[in-house]
Amino acid sequence: MAKKVKDRQVHENIRLITGWLFLAVGLYLLIAFGSYLFTWTVDQSLLGQEDILASGEKAANSGGILGNRVAHFFIGHLLGIGAFIIPLFLVTLAVVFLRIKKVKLLSLFFIAAYGSIILSVACSYIFSFTSWKYLFGAGVGGTYGYRVNEWLIDMLGLPGTGVLIFFVLTAWLVPIVVRIVQRRKERRAGKATVVAASAPETLPEPAREIPVPEEIHVPVLEVEPPAGEKNTPSFEIEMAAEESTGGTMELYDPKLDLPRYRRPELSLLEDYKDKLSEVPQEELERNNQKIVECLRTYNIQIEKIVATPGPTVTLYKIVLSPGIRISQFTRLESDIMLSLAARGMRVIAPIPGTNMVGIEVANDKPSLVPMKSVLDSTKFKESKDDLPVVLGKSISNEIFMLDLARMPHLLVAGATGQGKSVALNAILASLLYKMHPAYLKLVLVDPKRVELSLYSRLEKHFLAKLPDTENAIITDTKKVVHTLKSLCIEMDTRLELFNKAGVRNIKEYNKKFLDRRLNPVKGHRFMPFIVVVIDEFADLIMTAGRDVEGPLTRLAQMGRATGLHLVIATQRPTTNIITGTIKANFPARIAFRVASQTDSRTIIDVAEAKQLVGRGDMLISTGSDLIRAQCAFIDTPEVERLVEFIGAQQGYAGPFELPEYIDTDSPEVSGRPEGPRDELFEEAARMVVQVQYGSTSLLQRKMNLGYNRAGRIMDQLEEAGVVGPSDGSKPRQVLVGSMEMLEELLGK
Fold this sequence. Notes:
- With 748 residues, the chain is of the alpha/beta class.
- The chain has 4 domains: 13-190, no CATH class; 280-362, Threonyl-tRNA Synthetase, Chain A, domain 2; 371-656, Rossmann fold; 670-746, Winged helix-like DNA-binding domain superfamily/Winged helix DNA-binding domain (Arc Repressor Mutant, subunit A, Orthogonal Bundle), CATH 1.10.10.10.
- It has helices at residues 2-39, 52-55, 64-79, 85-97, 105-126, 142-196, 281-297, 326-330, 333-340, 371-375, 378-381, 420-434, 477-501, 506-514, 537-544, 546-558, 580-585, 597-604, 636-647, 667-670, 681-691, 696-703, 707-720, 739-746, and strands spanning 302-309, 313-320, 346-348, 357-362, 388-394, 399-403, 410-413, 440-445, 464-465, 529-534, 564-570, 588-591, 617-621, 626-631, 656-657.
- The protein has a 9-stranded mixed β-sheet with strand order 6-5-14-13-12-7-11-10-8. Strands 1-2-4-3 form a 4-stranded antiparallel β-sheet, covered by helices on one side. Strands 9-15 form a two-stranded parallel ribbon.
- The radius of gyration is 37 Å and the shape is flat.
């Protein structure tokens, strides 16, 4: 009995401690959450810092650094205002454990969980129409509420989402209100009953206290087993614990670094409805009549003609009568062109995959293909390609798409003013509309300095560049060479990581990394696709020659497996520019109208590019067959709006930095072995000595430097004797104890 009393006391103490603990945590979270509403913008810079305690920075949040980060996780990343239910739930639990009030815990839990979720979605929807749309980054409802609200709007529309949220919110609030009203009525009824009841005439006798003995000894009777019987030993089976395979671990999401990134809207692009046109029936019948009469003149009988109108060209599919040879038909190409008086006519004999021959005739009034129309197509929206690129419409008016990851490289060539620059903008627009910045990085090379400069605002989202480079768009020929060689270093690094991971390409590697089967401590990282776009390739070849062609060829040969893809464009398709090596490594080629048959053969190995109409009319070669299509049109103001929409959003701390390339032929490197100290060396030395903490990450944060430059300065500090050698992930030891010693060391 004494043991029961003792156990009861222990349980009572545990209950009280648990209650007070819930109360303390609940009140702390309530203070931190409340303070976060007013200090979240001030404390944004502290979220990504690892060594914040060593840096000496303090949080404005009343809950300190921990309170800021916990509040940012629950309010900013998860539930928004709905997160306040969490501390209220903990306070209620404290009330229950302290036996202040009886509450059904299970029902309380479901009410709190349901309420936090619905409040998050409801707040995200309601405040999306106000200036608080981007409060806490993703809005009042947090990232969870924003994503659920966005999905509901896509599925049900704006009014339908509002009606659904109203009914769900009502279904949650009404039972709570009804329960509160009922309890108040019951309480009033109970008080009235007590007042009306008469007091008892006699009071009950107080209960007598029964003394409890301190300890009761109960004799234990031990029974020996009968003779001949043996005690049976206990038998247990110990099972080996199953090793965790990581299947239940949450997958890595590279998009969490930019959780509030929104893909561009189609409203940024123009419809160009005034420039759309259809081929008149009279024109189709007229061309049909001329084709039939021309072929009859040369005794070529046909069975059927099928016209397929396109935006720029109409394809007339012809079924020849039995016994007519194709050579008889192809010899009449010039005669047919003369009879039709057509520009840009092309004969296809036979049409691949059919028993027909074809005649492509340019329309009298070509129609424009807006970029908005092809991006709004189901084919593009539902595409599962790694790098989908929508180029326009084929001559059969179908959306024409390619996967840049499968090509794997693309050559675009044509005469001046025929649509080459528009094609590059269409390729880039396709990637920007489809890809998240975590999955794609762009290296843009523009020797003319005018074509790709519009994309400079994407520096903190999609662009990649060399460390310590000011301009994100590469215009200097020397920097182009260094960038290509840096990409070769990146390619070799990725191939080495592939070898360690036991994979063959970037898709297999990233899947392993997302499944958390690769350890970042061993150098593994998520690898985005890198697309290199080079405009005016001829200028680079003329100025740099082999310095450009060498690394470019190497990237073209081995870059596919590592996710490195090239898009080069030129308006001078000559053999000294597009060499045999370039052609061999660029199986996908786009030819716009050219001036001569020689240029056409240089690009696509046939002379048919000279017969194109121009203004976006193009021939696409993907290895075997030629496909004629009309390039989608996107104007400069549309590109500006697209870039402005993306650039205005929160981006990364800086652009994606490529590996540093050191030119061994430069005089700065070939001079003295150590080289000159960085101009920020002394400033960095004073800061390290002042805080008595040496690390590369500290220099990055405090001095706003890239990783490579900060690492070089740290190495120079080691050579000067300011800090000690590197010791793994630990900060370096500061060898200089005071500013006076540092000044003596620097010679001042």
